[in-house]
Amino acid sequence: MRTQIRHYFLNAVLFSIATCSSVPCFPQSGGQTHPWMNPTLSPDDRASLVVKKMTLDEKITLLHGTGMEGLGPVSPLAAQSNGGAGYVVGIPRLGIPAIQMSDAAYGVCKSGENGRYSTALPANVGAAASWDLDAAYAYGALIGRELRAQGYNMSLGGGVDITREPRNGRTFEYLGEDPILAGKMVGALMKGEQAQHVIGDLKHYAFNDQESGRTAVNVNIDQRAGRESDLLAFEIGLEDSNAAAVMCSYNRVNGAYACENKYLLTDVLKKDWKFKGFVVSDWGATHSTAKASAAGLDHEEPAWIFYGNDLKKAVESGQVPLAEVDEHVHRILWTMFASGVIDDPPRKSVVDVEGGLEIAQRMEEQSAVLLKNDGQLPLDAEIHSIAVIGPHADVGMISGGGSAQVDPPGGNAIMPPGQGATEWGVPIWFPTSPLKSIRAKVPGAQVQFNSGSDPGSAAALAKTADVAIVFAYQWESEDMDLRSLSLPENQDDLIAKVAAANPRTIVVLETGSPVTMPWVDQVSAILEAWYGGSRGSNAVANILFGDVNPSAKLPVTFPKSEADLPHLTIVKPPKKTTDADSQGWRRTAAGLPAFQVAYDEGVKVGYKWYDAENKPVLFPFGYGLSYTTYSYANLKVAVGKNPRVSFTVTNTGSRAGAEIAEVYASLPAAAAEPPKRLVGWSKVKLDPGESKEVTVEVAAKYLSIFSVEKDGWQLLPGEYTFMVGGSSQNLPLKEAVTLR
Ligand code: BGC
Questions:
Q1: For residue 594, is it within any domain?
Q2: Fibronectin type III-like domain: which residues (predicted)?
Q3: Are 524 and 507 in contact (CB under 8 A)?
C-alpha cells in the first residue's frame, strides 16, 4: 500500500512539472513535448501538426494493417494486436497509439477466444424492429463500453446496407429495407458507440447486398436510384453520428471495385457528404495502389499488399503524390483526435456482465415482433401443460454467424462443454434456454420438450398439451446467402403437423430475414424473435406471458412467396471464384473476373417494390401487433421548409403499450417515385385510454428526389400526400398539401 501511495505522489509531481500552463506543452514518450497533445486545439490542427513531423515510413505505417492468417502476409508486429480483426501499429515517438479494431455488430466478437466476455445483443435487424433511437443509442453505447473494456479503440460494426435482397446472408447484421429507418437507427447506434470514445465505422459501402460472389460481383444501378436507396442510409447515418470511419465493400459498383471507386469514395462520401474520417477497405477488398489512393481509399486491411512498399515506391516515383498520402494520414489522425481515442485511450477492465444482460434482454423485448395473435397470447399463468418444440429449444437460441459472431459464454449451447468454441461456418446457439424460461413462468405446469426431429412425435406431444410453442429457426452468416426464404430442415412440415394436432400452436421464429409461412393460417400466434442475443429466451417468455407488451414493428417486408421478390434467384458467379487454399487471397487481390447483377428495381426496395407492383404480402413493412389497440385521429400538416405532421394517437385497449406511429408520403406524379415512402415516425408510450398529440417533423430531404442533373436533392413543387398509421398498409389518416 505504501509503495502505491508513493507512486501516485511521484506521478502527480512529474505530471505537474511536465504540463506547462502558459505554453501548450504536454508530456510524451522520451520526455519530448508534443504540441498536438493539447486537447484545446481542433482535431484538424492536431492532425496537421503530427503529419508535419512524420517520415514517409511512419505515414505508410498508419495506412495499412499488420495482417490476418489466410488473407495475405502477417507481420511479426501483429503479435502486439489485441486479438481483433485489425491492428495498426502506432507511432510511440509521436505519441500516436495503435489502432485496435474489433468486429462488433451485435456485440464484441472473438472475446471468448481472447479469454474475455462480451454481451450478445439481439441481431441488428431486431434492433431496427424497435424503431427506437434511444434503444439504438443504448445498444451502441454497450458495445462501445465493452470494446474499451477489452482494449479496443475501433469498432467494425455499423452495417447499414439495406435489405434489397432478403436472402442476403448478412441481413441480420443490417437494419432493414428502408433507408431512412436504417440510416436513423445506425446513426443513433454509432452515436452511442462513439460517445464511449471508440472509432465507429459504417459498412459495407456500398451495395454489398448479396454475399454470393461478393469479391467479384459488379452491381449495376443507376445513380438516382442508388442515392435514394442504399446510399441514403449511409448519408443519414453519417449525418446523424459523424461516424469516423467507413468501410468500403468487396463488390464492384458500376464497373469499379468499391474500394477504388472514385464516385463512391470521393465524389459522394468525401465531397458531397463532407466526410472527414477515413475509408478502410474491407478485409482483402483493396485491389490497387495508385488507383485506390486517387479514388479515396485511405487505409488497407488487413495487410499491406498495396499500401505498404508499393505505396512507398509509388510516392518516390511520383506516381502517387505525397499530398495524397498526407491526406490519408491526416484523415486517420483527425479521426483519432476527434473520436477521443488519443485523449481518453481504452483501459482494460471487467465488463458489467449483469448490466449488459439486462440491456440485451430489454432490447429483445422491444425487438420481437408479434405477427399474428388469434387471442392465444398472452398466455395465462394458470395454464396446465405446454409442449415446447423445436431444434435445441431446450438449451439455446441461435445467433448470426461470420465476422459478427459473438462468442457465447461457455461455448456453443448445443455442444458438450469445452467443445463449443466458435468456428467459421458453424451455427452457434446461445445458452439462453426457451424451455427453462418458460418453465420459470409456470412452475406448477407440466412443460415438456420435443426437438421436432420427428414431426410425428412432436405432434403427439402437442396433442396432449394445452398449448404448443414451436421454436423455428433459419441460420444466417457472412459469406453465404440463404438458399431460400423457407425454413430449413423440414420445419414447415413440423409446424404444420404440430398445428394440425393442436390448433393452439404458437410459433416463435429465430431468423435474420423474412421467411415464408405455408402454415400461417393453421397456427394461432406468431412471434418473430430474430436472433435474440444473450438473454433472448427470458425476453420471449416475458412477451409470451404478457409481462411485456410487444411494441416492435417489421423493418422488412415478409413476402407471400419468393416469386414476388424483385429477383427470382440470387445471381451467382459463373464458377467458384475463390479458392480455399492459402494463396486464394492473391487471386482475390488481383481482382476476380466480374459477373453482373442488375438492380433494375432501383429505388423500389422492400415495400416500395410490393406497393409499386401491386403484390400482396404476408406481413407488410412497419407491421406489428400489441396486446392493446390504438386509434389515430386529427391529422394536421403544417407546411414549411420541413413540414410538421401532427396527429393524435389513443390507446383504445386495456394495457399500457408503446405504439410506433409511422408517417409516409407520396410525392407528386412528376417525381416518378413508388407509391409511398416512410418519412418519419414516433414511438409513443400510452396508458390504457390515454391520448397523445404527436408531431413528426419531416426533413425536406426525405421528401425530395435525387437529381442527377443538379447533382443534389431536389424538392419538386406539387402535391404531397401524408399518410399516418400503424403500418405501411394501415394508414387511416391522409392529407394532401402543396409544397413548393
Ligand atoms: C467482413 C467485414 C469485417 C472484416 C473483418 C470481412 O470479411 O466483410 O464485415 O469487418 O471481415 O473481420
A1: no
A2: 659-728
A3: no
Judge whether 310 counts as a catalytic residue: no
Does any domain span residue 609? no
**Which residue's alpha carbon is nearest to atom 5 within ligand 1?**
85
Ligand 1 pocket, residues with Cβ under 6 angstroms: 85, 103, 156, 203, 282-283, 403, 478
| Percent of the residues in the chain that have a pLDDT greater than 90, as a whole number | 91
- What pairs with residue 372 in β-bridges? 526
Ligand 1: residue whose CA is nearest its atom 9: 403
**Same domain (yes/no): 98, 168:** yes
Q: How far apart are the first and last CA of the chain?
A: 73
Where do runs of H (alpha helix) occur along 24-178?
43-53, 56-61, 124-130, 133-149
The reported pLDDT for the residue numbered 24 is 35
Dist CA 324 CA 635 (whole Å): 53
190 and 69 in one domain?
A: yes
Three-state DSSP state, 177 = coil
Instruction: Please give the DSSP secondary-structure letter assigned to residue 293.
Output: H
Distance CA 453, CA 674 (A): 44
- pLDDT by residue (tens digit) across 141-197? 999 999 999 999 999 999 999 999 999 999 999 999 999 999 999 999 999 999 999
Give dist(CA 400, CA 123) in Å, integer: 7
Q: Which atom of ligand 1 is nearest to the CA of 109?
A: 12
16 located within any domain: no
Taking CA atoms only, the protein residue closest to ligand 1 atom 3 is 403
Q: Which helix (H) or strand (E) holds 735?
A: strand 733-739
List Cα–Cα distances, 215 to 256, 540, 572, 592, 721, in angstroms: 12, 38, 12, 7, 42
Same domain, 66 and 211: yes
Across 697-717, b (16+ Cβ under 10 Å) vs e yields ebbebbbbbbeeeeeebebbe
C-alpha–C-alpha distance, residues 81 and 66, integer Å: 9
Half-sphere exposure of 592 (CA within 13 A, CB side): 25
Q: Which three cell numbers stand for residue 671?
A: 417525381
Output the residue whose Cα is nearest ligand 1's atom 4.
Answer: 283
Provide the grid cell at 648: 393524435
Span from the CA of 283 to the centroid of ligand 1 (angstroms): 6
C-alpha cell at 294: 486517387
Residues 400 and 315 in one domain: no
For residue 403, the ligand 1 atom closest to its alpha carbon is 12
Q: How far is the CA of 159 from the centre of ligand 1 (A)?
A: 10
Looking at 132, 178, 230, 282, which residue is catalytic?
Answer: 282
As given in the structure block, the three cell numbers for residue 513 are 430475414
CATH code, domain carrying 114: 3.20.20.300
pTM for the model stands at: 0.95
Q: For residues 135 and 192, what is the distance between their CA atoms, to the nearest angstrom? A: 10
Read off the CATH number of the domain in which 403 is found.
3.40.50.1700
